[in-house]
Amino acid sequence: MGADVDLHDIQRGVLSPRPSPYAATHLVFRIDTRADGRELMRRAAAVVTSAADGVSPLGETWVSLAVTGHGLRALGVPQESWDSMAWEFRQGMAARAIALGDTGSSGPERWEPPLGSPDVHVVLAAVAPDTALLEAAIDRARPAYEQLAGVTAIWRQDCHALPTEAEPFGYRDGISHPAVEGSGIPGSNPLEQPLKAGEFVLGYPDELGGVQTTTPDVLGRNGSYVAFRKLRQDVAAFRRFLRDNSTGGNDEELLAAKVMGRWRSGAPLALAPERDDPALGADRSRNNAFLFGSDDPDGFTTPGGCHIRRANPRDSAVAGEPRLHRMIRRGAAYGPLLPDGVLDDDGGDRGLMFTFVGAHLGRQFEFAQTQWLNDGVFFGAGDARDPIAATGDGPGDYTIPRRPVRRRLRGVPRFVTTRGGEYAFLPSLTALRWLGEQTD
After folding, report:
1. Does 391 lie in the same domain as 243?
2. Is the pLDDT reported for residue 3 higher than 50?
3. Model pLDDT, residue 329
4. Residue 422 · residue 293 · CB < 8 Å
5. What does residue 165 show for φ and ψ, rounded to 5 degrees?
6. Residues 164, 76: one domain?
7. What is the spatial distance between Cα 104 and Cα 110, in angstroms, rounded to a whole number?
8. Residue 54's pLDDT band (boundaries 50, 70, 90)?
């Protein structure tokens, strides 16, 4: 099966976990003239890194290019090609805001311009182990767009590993990554069987035996859908919540672990239930090697409502068939670090650039966001939301199972605000060339 997955044609950003530490950037472009947009596609095919390129000239560095629905329209793809794309993709993320919980302060009307607008056509993302290598990668890509008068750069977001190598709330990030059958890239959980390639890349059988395709097949095959989201994190509010709801001392860090499902070091409660184990948290061969359903079905160790159990229920029977909703998720921190001990918001813009990669926008990203993060019905918790990453306004409740009396926290505020986002498609290298060869 491995030989059937064409790594040379798949963009590396689909299958490769990001380096750690890292520097990254997201550049957004508007296509003003169709001819130059198509030329950008042709040039990009020679710039983006393939999944087969495990040894880039710049080390663990790669460039990816994605096209939004508005971008495909600007490129003038045939109507039958447009109609064959996923309907969520054709609608765009802003149009799906109510379903995703992007309302109130997270509503598209409050997003950072131009995110969510018809001007977002192309997203170029680059990631590298450090800033120098990142700038070198961008320099290599620059000729692909800088000399095209009909392509305009309209937005940029730089990201970087924090000094703590954690995300802004203080937790080690980038731990979980699924194994994709036929890719040769190992997953982070040795207890999880590799998933079918068709769960993440079009043109291959998925877990149900179906094959996602497009018209023509060359447009979709070896490509993936992506969801980009800029998520602002209110770090000061999160710190106040932990302080105000703990009894002091070690209880504050235990509460932080109970809402995330991991200690801030990355050590999972499943393997370190009583106290933090920084050595375990830093050990990539062990820090994700656990299940829920067989070891902790009732959530007394890792609460059913905590973030990591909602985002990836693993083998939990209450989640139905989690493999059908498994995603490749990546986060890259942006903005300045809030100094330790500061409990008041300094007004700084900080958070995560979140990226979903998969073949099924509906049953992967949207399902997880609406059914697992923004609701609690699937594990018997009613309308309780994810305490870390739920969207929408208004406080919620959070329950920590324990004997003899459960611990219930009321009035949990929302710590994350959606600042913008978009659905896009990561074409194969062949599809980039095909897009560049289109004529009116």
Report:
1. yes
2. no
3. 93
4. no
5. 55, 35
6. yes
7. 8
8. low
Q: How many CA atoms lie within 13 A of 424 on its CB side?
A: 27
Q: 205 and 196 in contact (C-beta within 8 Å)?
A: yes
Q: Assess contact for 141 and 89: CB atoms under 8 A.
A: no
Can you tell me the distance from the alpha carbon of 155 to that of 143, in angstroms, rounded to the nearest whole number?
Answer: 18
Cα 392 from Cα 395, distance rounded (Å): 9
The tens digit of pLDDT for each residue in 15-53 reads 988 888 899 999 999 999 999 999 999 999 999 999 998
Percent of the chain with pLDDT over 70: 97
Alpha-carbon distance of 26 to 12, in angstroms, equals 16
Q: Residue 121 belongs to what domain range?
A: 2-231+424-436
- 177 and 277 co-located in one domain: no
CA distance 259 to 83: 42
Section 146-154 average pLDDT: 96
Buried b (16+ CB within 10 A) or exposed e, 331-361: bbbbbebbeeeeeeeeeeebbbbbbbbbbbb
When pLDDT is cut at 50, 70 and 90, the band that residue 150 belongs to is: very high
What pLDDT does residue 396 have?
86
The amino acid at 418: T
Distance from C-alpha of 56 to C-alpha of 50, rounded to nearest angstrom: 10
Token pair 């290298």 is at which residue?
A: 429
Q: At 83, which amino acid appears?
A: D
Q: Which residue has the tokens 């109510």?
A: 98
Does 334 share its domain with 416? yes
Token code pair at residue 232: 């602002």
Instruction: Determine whether 188 is exposed, middle or buried from the number of CB atoms within 10 Å of its CB (0-12, 13-18, 19+).
Output: middle
How far apart, in whole angstroms, are the C-alpha atoms of residue 431 and residue 41? 9
Q: What mean pLDDT is reported for the chain?
A: 93
Same domain assignment for residues 145 and 265: no
pLDDT in tens, 137-146: 999 999 999 9
| 227 and 237 within one domain | no
Average pLDDT over residues 173-188: 91
8 A C-beta contact, residue 337 and residue 168: yes
DSSP code at position 147: T
What pLDDT is attached to residue 20?
86
Residue 216: pLDDT band (50, 70, 90) is very high
Total length of the chain? 440
The tokens for 339 are 């100094």
* Closest among 161, 210, 167 to 388, alpha carbons compared: 167
Question: What one-character-per-residue DSSP string does 245-256 give?
Answer: TS-STHHHHHHH
**DSSP three-state, residue 14:** helix
Name 25's bridge partners: 126, 158
Domain count along the chain: 2
Q: How far is C-alpha 121 from the geometric centre of its chain's CA atoms?
A: 19
